[in-house]
Amino acid sequence: MNIEERESRIELKDTPEKRANFRVAILGSGAEKTAQDRQAIDRAGKFAGGSVEKGFSISTGGYSGVMKAATEAAAEKARQMGVNPKDRVFAYPMKDAKVFAELEVKDDDAEKIRSDSVTKRLTGLVGESSAFVVFGGGFGSLTEVLTALEEERIKKKITPEKPSRPVILIDPSLKHTDTLSQLARAEKKLRDPAITESLYILSHNPEAEKIAQEILEQHYQASVGNKPAEGELQKYSAYNLKNFLRNQENFQEGSGI
């Protein structure tokens, strides 16, 4: 197949409607206190805006910090593109949680899907997203990540032919990176290929956001039935948990990375 034929096939499968259905969950801290929080907020906002510019949709937990920054930037980008933000930006706040009301993202910036329990909220945010990008955060973000990974592990057993949903860590503090690598060594299920090959660690990479967008594009194309170019999968597998654990083992054994 020549280049023109391949590009023609991609155009047939890749449509604006399909791109809009590819929903990128932006996860991270609701705090806005430390320099680390502010850095994550800035990066998350830019990333969310760039994702909407590529035609994807965005989902967040619907509150402050990283969630707010991602929601506002995505909504602003949608408006610039002449698109109703509620068609591209989705938020998952709690129902009747008045104590958190002042932290919620604006109604005009997102379509809000409310839940009356944390379990249902997590089910919506994780279950209805196509990919996950994590900008630091704490226990809540880690819970969302582990839920997404476990769902991928089970789905792969039921429908092994279905493309995986990526989980991408942009985590300069290395908090989630360290926790997940330790858990993976202790828990066999976390070493399942469905997890180790779809969890990407870009924590200290200076081009983290650029690589993350490329990984999202690769997984989106797979989701609409377009096979990646030769060597493309290998290129990004260098960042997955499988390689991260192997590199750690090599380093600890003294053979270097």
Structure overview:
This protein is of the alpha/beta class. It is 51% helix and 11% strand. The protein has helices at 3-13, 16-21, 35-53, 66-80, 118-127, 139-158, 175-186, 193-196, 208-223, 232-237, 241-252, and strands spanning 23-28, 57-60, 89-91, 111-112, 131-135, 167-170, 199-201. The protein has a seven-stranded parallel β-sheet, sandwiched between helices. Helix 6 (139-158) links the parallel strand 5 and strand 6. The longest helix is centred in the middle third of the chain and has 20 residues, at 139-158. The model has no long low-confidence stretch (mean pLDDT 89).
Keyword list:
single chain, 257 residues, alpha/beta, 11 helices
Helical residues, percent: 40-55%
Large-scale geometry: globular
Structural class: alpha/beta
Q: Rg, please?
A: 18 Å
Unreliable spans: none
Question: What is the terminal separation in angstroms?
Answer: 38 Å
Major β-sheet strand ordering = 4-3-2-1-5-6-7
Mean pLDDT: 89
| Discrete helix count | 11
Assess the beta-strand content as a share of residues: 5-15%
Would you kindly provide a brief summary of this structure?
Strands 4-3-2-1-5-6-7 form a seven-stranded parallel sheet, with helices on both faces. The protein is an alpha/beta fold and 257 residues long.
Outline the fold blueprint.
Blueprint lengths: L2 H11 L2 H6 L1 E6 L6 H19 L3 E4 L5 H15 L8 E3 L19 E2 L5 H10 L3 E5 L3 H20 L8 E4 L4 H12 L6 H4 L2 E3 L6 H16 L8 H6 L3 H12 L5
